[in-house]
Every structure is written in structure tokens, then in C-alpha cells.
Write a structure and sequence with these properties.
heterodimer; A: alpha+beta; two-stranded antiparallel ribbon; about 25% helix; B: mainly alpha; 13 helices; 2 strands
Chain lengths: ~180, ~350
């Protein structure tokens, strides 16, 4: 059904257009003076001021690997995250844990763990899929570099960002 | 022609056009960005230099260093000519604007022509060639449409622009801008007739046609300089960037600067015709006669007064741009031909009647 839009009948002085200009300028100049007199502040001067203190708990920033209280690297190189990663940003090469190691029964650990931050889309699927609680998305968001190589986070860098995380399930500990 | 005159003229050209007007263009671009930002609750460029004042310089360097790309499908000769044709007339009109009384006994106007406003209109109307050539030589759809639009728009509004100042010329009986300014210094500005002969019944009656003239003049000036609310030749939503779509780097910068230079000259003309040019209100610090000798300080104050008024006018231009939405093209044409043209004509007759009745 066609809708007939009723157009308002304008007064003669409204036809002059000038009152509309004045009321429009009152709006724009109102904003102008509010900003100029610093009564209102909207913009955050980014590099100097940051939102970091207000980031929510569930914020998804750069993915990182963590170690636990025992100093064990939690990743067991199961490669599930590599498999699920939608943009294929993760590349893992596993290695065997030597039998004289304290955690020999874990059997596997990553020899190489690269996340290409140019490809990463911060979806958090790696964190979701990880059966070992080894990879987490941190709050770092300003990941920069001057070359593609620089943007690849290797294992050392990932542990550096991740740090130690406590209170996780320790399924590899000896039974007490 | 003696060398003293040549030297004085050359100094005035270099100082007024290249050392004052062009930096003022850069400053206008900066002001446009900062004011528009404040109006939209943003901050605007504030990083380069104090308050971001060096931003235009950074922009200029960027324009110069960018690749100057000429598409293969353009007509090269006209394509290269067009940007210059928009920039040059805009700067040429500086010649007749009196930007001060006298300084060191020298008239503060580059060419004291007896046909001031006519010269400005004649030269300013050449700008349309630059835009038409740019649109046509680019040999693609959007620039072509932009060029066609701006041609009809500028030609239409030139008529209103010319007709709107006829009442003023009738009142002053003079086409020399310096004399018009001195007349206003003595007898009240056209838009503020509060002293001298302006403070009379005749002055009050003549204020009506002058105010109508002012509205028509300023609106036509917006249309002539392709500023919002009349920026249809380059409206982004319909025509990408209009006539300068195919231009890059310094050629685009010339269009950009030409537009702002035209805006400054337009403001200068409006100030000269309606707000008493360099004169101070109520005849303060007025020289005793036309081109009469004044002290250095007074001369400097006059120049400062002129540029202060021009800057105020430019700010008005900017605020209007960020306040009003764009007109539709048929509305634009209707406004120009059906309303302003007739009102300007009637205004001429009204002025003549007032002058005749009061005499």
C-alpha cells in the first residue's frame, strides 16, 4: 500500500530559508564552542592516553603461550590450534621430550611455535580448542612491525607475552 | 613608467599575493579542518607543529612528492592547462582589492583600477574554463558531469552576482574600490550605516536594498566558489570527486588551492563592498582624504583590520559549509534563476526609486 507522506505546510518566513540556517548554525556553533571551550571532551588522544585500564576481561588480543607454576610449558604440541586456525596463522613443529626430562611422560612439546600476526584474526578459536589450557588471547592489541618477518611471533616471544599463568588444571602432576 | 612604480608594484604583488594570500590559503585549509572537527565533536589535525599549524605544510610536501599520474585516456594539453586555469584567475583578482590605506606613502592596492568590481567578475568568470576543461579533458563520465554542472551553475550565478552589486554602485556612483572604501569610511559601511551621512533617513532606507544585495551576493559567492551548500560539481556521493576525479598530486592541489583562493578573494570583495574594506567603524583613524598620508601605525592597523574582517568572513564560510546540507540540482537552478535573478533586478529598481525619492 502506498503511503502518502504529508508534507508540512510552511509559514511564509519558513520559506525564506534564513531561519533554518540560523537554527542550524545554533546547533553547529553550539558543538563548536563546547569543544573549543573544553566543556565537552569526546576524543581520547590515542598514543598518550589508552583504554588499557578499561579493557573487558573477555578482550581478545594477541594469542600467547603460557607456562604454569611448575615452570612447565603447557603446550603439548597436539596441533589442534594449528588445525582449527581459520586463517592458518599458526605453524607448529613438535619434538619429543627426552626421557631424562622431569616431564618425560608428557612425551611431546613444540620445537617451533610460530603465529603469524599478519594473518591472525583474533578469533580466539585456538584458545577455545586447546585441551591443555596452553594458549590464551591476551590484551595486547598494538602489534606492529616494519617487516613481515617481524610480525611472526616465535615460541620465545609467545612465552614472553604469555608469562606464567596460575590456577590452571594440572593434569600432568604426580598423584599425591 | 618609472622604476620606482615598478619596484613598488612588484613589492606589493610579492608581499600581498605570495606572502599573505597564499599562506592565508594554507591557514584557511587548516582552519576548515579544525573548525569542522570541532563542529563534529572531533579534534582535527593537532600533531604537526603547535595546534597542528604546520599541517598544511605537511600536506603540501605530500602533494609534491606524490606520483603525478596522467591517465592514458585524457587529452594531455587541456588536461595540463586546466589546473592552472583555476588557480591563476583566483590570484589575479587580488590586483584590485584595496587591502589597506597607505603605508610609507604608497597606496595599498596593487592596481587602482577604475573598474574594480567589473575586473574581478571578468577575471573570476575565467575560472569556469579551468573546471570545464578539467571535466572535458579528463574524458570520463564523472568529471564530465561535474564539469557540465559547474558550468551551468557558475554562469547562472554570475548573473546574480553581477546584478546584486548594482545597487551599491548606484549608491556610491563609483566603480573604483579604493574610493568605495573611503566613501564607506566617511559615511558608514554599507552593512553598518551608523555614522556620517549614513546616519540619516536616506541611509536607513538604503539599508534595505543593501541588505538584500548582501544576501544575494554572499549566496552567489558560495555558488561561484563551488562551496557547500552548492558544491554539486564535486559532490562525492554522486560524482566521486567531480571535475578533478582524474587528477592527482600537485595538479589536484592546484584545484584545491584555487578553490580556497577564490573563497578568500570572494571574502575580500564582500568585505570591501559591504563592510568598509580596511576602514575602522565610526570613522576612527580615517585618513583626511582619499589616499591621504597616514602614519605607519595607522596604516598597519588598516591592513590588520582588512585581514581581520576577511578571516571573520572565511570562518563564516566554513561554519555555513558544515551546517547546511547540499542542495538538489534543480533547487539550485530554481534558486538562481527564479528567485535571485528577479529579486536582484527588483532590488536595482527599488534602489533607484529610493535614490530618486530622497533626492
Amino acid at each position: 500500500m502506498a503511503i502518502v507522506v504529508k508534507r508540512p505546510k510552511l509559514k511564509w518566513w519558513e520559506h525564506l530559508y534564513i531561519p533554518a540556517i540560523i537554527s542550524g548554525m545554533r546547533v553547529t556553533l553550539g558543538h563548536f564552542f563546547q569543544i573549543v571551550s573544553r566543556k565537552k571532551k569526546v576524543t581520547m588522544q590515542y598514543p598518550e592516553e589508552k583504554w588499557d585500564a578499561h579493557l573487558p576481561e573477555h578482550y581478545r588480543g594477541a594469542p600467547a603461550l603460557v607456562t604454569d607454576e611448575q615452570g612447565r610449558e603447557r603446550c603439548v604440541a597436539c596441533q589442534l590450534c594449528e588445525f582449527i586456525c581459520p586463517p592458518r596463522a599458526i605453524a607448529i613443529r613438535p619434538e619429543e621430550i627426552p626421557s631424562d626430562d622431569k616431564w618425560a611422560k608428557v612425551e611431546k612439546r613444540p620445537k617451533k611455535f610460530d603465529i603469524d600476526m599478519v594473518r591472525c584474526i583474533y578469533c580466539g578459536m585456538c584458545e577455545e580448542v586447546c585441551p591443555e589450557q596452553a594458549i590464551f588471547l591476551r590484551k595486547d592489541y598494538a602489534i606492529t612491525g616494519t617487516s613481515r618477518d617481524e610480525m611472526v611471533h616465535d615460541k620465545d616471544r609467545l612465552y614472553e607475552i604469555g608469562g606464567v599463568r596460575t590456577g590452571l588444571v594440572n593434569k600432568w602432576n604426580d598423584l599425591k | 613608467m618609472d622604476w620606482q612604480f615598478l619596484l613598488a608594484s612588484l613589492t606589493k604583488i610579492v608581499v600581498f599575493v605570495f606572502l599573505v594570500t597564499l599562506p592565508l590559503v594554507a591557514l584557511t585549509v587548516w582552519a576548515e579542518r579544525r573548525v569542522s572537527a570541532a563542529i563534529q565533536d572531533r579534534v582535527g589535525p593537532n600533531r604537526v607543529g603547535p595546534f597542528g599549524l604546520l599541517q598544511p605544510l605537511a600536506d603540501g610536501i605530500k602533494f609534491l612528492l606524490k606520483e603525478d599520474f596522467t591517465p592514458s585516456h585524457v587529452r594531455k594539453g587541456f588536461y595540463w592547462m586546466a589546473p592552472a586555469l583555476t588557480m591563476v584567475p583566483a590570484l589575479m583578482t587580488c590586483a584590485v582589492l584595496p587591502f589597506g590605506s597607505t603605508l610609507f606613502g604608497e597606496k595599498m592596492v596593487i592596481a587602482d583600477l577604475n573598474v574594480g568590481p567589473l575586473f574581478v567578475f571578468a577575471i573570476a568568470s575565467l575560472t569556469v574554463y579551468g573546471i570545464v576543461l578539467a571535466g572535458w579533458a579528463s574524458n570520463s563520465k564523472y568529471p564530465f558531469l561535474g564539469g557540465v554542472r559547474s558550468t551551468s551553475q557558475m554562469i547562472s550565478y554570475e548573473i546574480c552576482l553581477g546584478l546584486s552589486i548594482v545597487p551599491l554602485l548606484m549608491i556610491y556612483g563609483e566603480l573604483n574600490l579604493s574610493k568605495i572604501v573611503y566613501e564607506q569610511a566617511e559615511n558608514g559601511w554599507a552593512m553598518l550605516p551608523l555614522w556620517g551621512e549614513g546616519w540619516s533617513l536616506k541611509g536607513a532606507l538604503l539599508f534595505i536594498p543593501v541588505a538584500i544585495s548582501f544576501v544575494i551576493f554572499v549566496t552567489s559567492m558560495f555558488a561561484e566558489t563551488n562551496r557547500l551548500p552548492f558544491d554539486l560539481p564535486e559532490c562525492e556521493t554522486e560524482l566521486v570527486a567531480g571535475y578533478h576525479t582524474e587528477y592527482s598530486s600537485m595538479k589536484f592541489a592546484l584545484f584545491f588551492l584555487g578553490e580556497y583562493a577564490a573563497m578568500i578573494i570572494g571574502s575580500g570583495l564582500a568585505v570591501t563592498l559591504f563592510f568598509g574594506g580596511w576602514s575602522l567603524p565610526f570613522g576612527w583613524l580615517k585618513p583626511d582624504e582619499l589616499h591621504g598620508e597616514v602614519g605607519f601605525l595607522t596604516g598597519a592597523i588598516h591592513i590588520a583590520s582588512f585581514f581581520l574582517k576577511v578571516i571573520a568572513f572565511i570562518l563564516f564560510f566554513i561554519v555555513i559549509r558544515w551546517t547546511l546540507p547540499r542542495f538538489r540540482y534543480d533547487q539550485l537552478m530554481r534558486l538562481g534563476w527564479v528567485f535571485f535573478f528577479e529579486i536582484a533586478l527588483a532590488n536595482v529598481i527599488l534602489t533607484a526609486l529610493i535614490l530618486w525619492l530622497v533626492e
